[in-house]
Write a structure and sequence with these properties.
With about 325 residues, the chain is mainly beta. It has one helix and 35 strands.
Length: about 325
C-alpha cells in the first residue's frame, strides 16, 4: 500500500513500522528459491514456501499472493479466503484494508466485507479509526464504515495516542477522535505521538510537543524521532544519536541512520552497513548488514548480499539470508 502522507524521514517510518509490528504472531515471512513461506520463532519452516508474495502475520492472519491476487492465511497456512483481492493490507483492530479493482474497503478476520470498496486508498485501523482517501482528500471512518471525519485534509496519518496528525494549508496540527482540532495548525512538520510526546518542526528546527501542543523539548535539533525505551533518535548535522526527555545526548551522534529501540536494541548504520546498539551505546551486534529492522518477538529481519534473513539478539542467524 502507498503511504498516505509525505515522507517524514527514515526514523519516523521505522517507528511506525515498529508500532505496527506490536501485534504480530510468531510467524515470520521467509523466501526460499524465489517463493515465500513462514518460519516459526526458532527458524523452523512452519508454512511451506509456496507463495508469490507474503506479508507478516497480524492478529493471526497474513496476506499472501498467488499470481496477481491476494488472500489471507491463518497460522497453519490455510486460506481464510483464497486469493481474490487486487491488494491486501494487514489486520488491525479486527479489520484489514483490501483493494477490489481500483477501490479500497475493509474486511473482517473471516474476510467478510465490512466496509464496501469506495476509497482511493485505505490504511489500517488505529484507535477505532481508519484513514481513507476520497477525491484526493483524507478523512477517517469508524468500524461501521461511517465517515466520522469528512475527507478534507491535504495529508494525514493514522491515530496514535488518541491524536492524528493532519495537514491543511501547508501546516500540520492534530485531531482528536471526534474530528475536533486538538492542536492548531502550527507546525511545518509533525510526527506521531508516543509516550505522550510528538516530534514537530518550526523554523526548520525540530523538538517535541505534548498533547496540548506545547513544547516539552524546544526545537533545537536538525531532526528528531519519537521516544522508545526512554530515548529518541535525533540528528545533529549529518549524524544521528539518541537523546533523553531533557534533550541531553545519551548516545552521541555518530551514525548515518538509526532506527528506534526495541527489545533493548536499536539498528544503526555505520560506514554504509547496519548493526545494533544497546541502551548504553555499546555496539552489541557488529555492523555487517545492508539493512536491519527493529527487533520484534526477539528477532530482527536483516538483509545481506541482496538476501533476506533473521537474526536473534546475539546476532546469530535464525534464518540465514537467502533468496
Amino acid at each position: 500500500m502507498h503511504s498516505l502522507a509525505p515522507r517524514i524521514g527514515f526514523v519516523a517510518a521505522m517507528v511506525a513500522a515498529l508500532a505496527a509490528c506490536s501485534g504480530s504472531s510468531d510467524r515470520f515471512a521467509v523466501v526460499q528459491g524465489g517463493r515465500w513461506g513462514y518460519m516459526d520463532g526458532r527458524g523452523r519452516l512452519a508454512i511451506p514456501c509456496s507463495f508469490d508474495a507474503a506479508g507478516d502475520f497480524y492478529e493471526g492472519r497474513a496476506a499472501a499472493a498467488r499470481g496477481l491476487k491476494w488472500g489471507y492465511l491463518d497460522a497453519k497456512g490455510e486460506w481464510i479466503v483464497p486469493p481474490s483481492f487486487d491488494a491486501a493490507g494487514r489486520f488491525s483492530e479486527g479489520l484489514a484494508a483490501v483493494k477490489v479493482g481500483i477501490r479500497w474497503g475493509y474486511v473482517d478476520r473471516d474476510a467478510r466485507e465490512r466496509i464496501p470498496p469506495g476509497y482511493e486508498e485505505a490504511q489500517p485501523f488505529s484507535d477505532g479509526r481508519g484513514l481513507v482517501l476520497l477525491n484526493a482528500r483524507f478523512g477517517f471512518v469508524d468500524s461501521k464504515g461511517r465517515l466520522v471525519v469528512e475527507p478534507r485534509f491535504e495529508a494525514a496519518s493514522p491515530f496514535s495516542g488518541g491524536l492524528a496528525r493532519v495537514r491543511e494549508g501547508g501546516r500540520w496540527g492534530f485531531l482528536d477522535r471526534g474530528g475536533g482540532l486538538a492542536i492548531p495548525y502550527s507546525f511545518e512538520w509533525a510526527g506521531d505521538f508516543s509516550d505522550g510526546l510528538a516530534p514537530a518542526a518550526i523554523g526548520g528546527r525540530y523538538g517535541l510537543v505534548d498533547e496540548r501542543g506545547e513544547w516539552e523539548l524546544d526545537p533545537m535539533f536538525d531532526e528528531i524521532g519519537s521516544f522508545s525505551h526512554g530515548l529518541a533518535a535525533a540528528r545533529r548535522g549529518e549524524q544521528w544519536g539518541f537523546v533523553d526527555r531533557e534533550g541531553k545526548w545519551v548516545i552521541e551522534p555518530a551514525y548515518q541512520q538509526v532506527g528506534p529501540f526495541s527489545d533493548g536494541l536499536a539498528p544503526v548504520k555505520a560506514t554504509h552497513v547496519w548493526g545494533f546498539l544497546d541502551l548504553a551505546g555499546n555496539m552489541k551486534i557488529a555492523p555487517r548488514y545492508t539493512f536491519a529492522s527493529p527487533f520484534r518477538a526477539g528477532l530482527s529481519k536483516v538483509s545481506a548480499g541482496g538476501h533476506v534473513g533473521y537474526i536473534d539478539k546475539m546476532g546469530h542467524d535464525v534464518w540465514r539470508p537467502s533468496s
